[in-house]
Amino acid sequence: MLNEFKAFIARGNVMDLAVGVIIGAAFSRIVDSIVNDLVMPIVGAMTGGGFDFSNYFLPLSSNVTANSLAAAREQGAVFAYGNFITVALNFVILAWIIFLMVKGVNRVRASVEKQKAEEAGPPPADVALLTEIRDLLKSRPAV
């Protein structure tokens, strides 16, 4: 069983996954900073200042009288919907950033493929002949 485990760990997929998890954790901190340090202050300025989703909650116990979420949690159960809004906003920003990254990579990849095709020159004679035959067969009416 130990040898099987070594073989499993040595596979490239496991290492790729580990690298992805590590980079994902670091990327999560970047997104948190974008939300907390850039987006939320702008939202706060647009809504009259002092707007912070993280302290929005509904007390679920009559013992909860605090105004901040941390203090309210110490007093009893709370429904912390503001924290959910912050996490959802983080997700939307993260999804947008990943979308832009994938779009950029696809654009670069298409450019590289186009450049390779231009450098390759015309296809060999046999490929050109087969392409012509294919196109002629496509243009024939179905029998």
UniProtKB/TrEMBL annotation:
It comes from the Bacteria. Gene3D superfamilies: Large-conductance mechanosensitive channel, MscL, domain 1. It holds the Pfam family MscL. InterPro entries: Mechanosensitive_channel_CS (IPR019823), MS_channel (IPR001185), MSC/AndL (IPR037673), MscL_channel (IPR036019). It is found in: Cell inner membrane; Cell membrane. It is a multi-pass membrane protein. Keywords: Cell inner membrane, Cell membrane, Ion channel, Ion transport, Membrane, Transmembrane, Transmembrane helix, Transport. The keyword Cell membrane applies. Its main location: membrane. The chain crosses the membrane at residues 12-31, 78-102. PANTHER family: LARGE-CONDUCTANCE MECHANOSENSITIVE CHANNEL, MECHANOSENSITIVE CHANNEL MSCL. Channel that opens in response to stretch forces in the membrane lipid bilayer. May participate in the regulation of osmotic pressure changes within the cell. Homopentamer. Belongs to the MscL family. This is Large-conductance mechanosensitive channel. It comes from Mycoplana rhizolycopersici. The lineage of its organism: Bacteria, Pseudomonadati, Pseudomonadota, Alphaproteobacteria, Hyphomicrobiales. The gene is mscL.
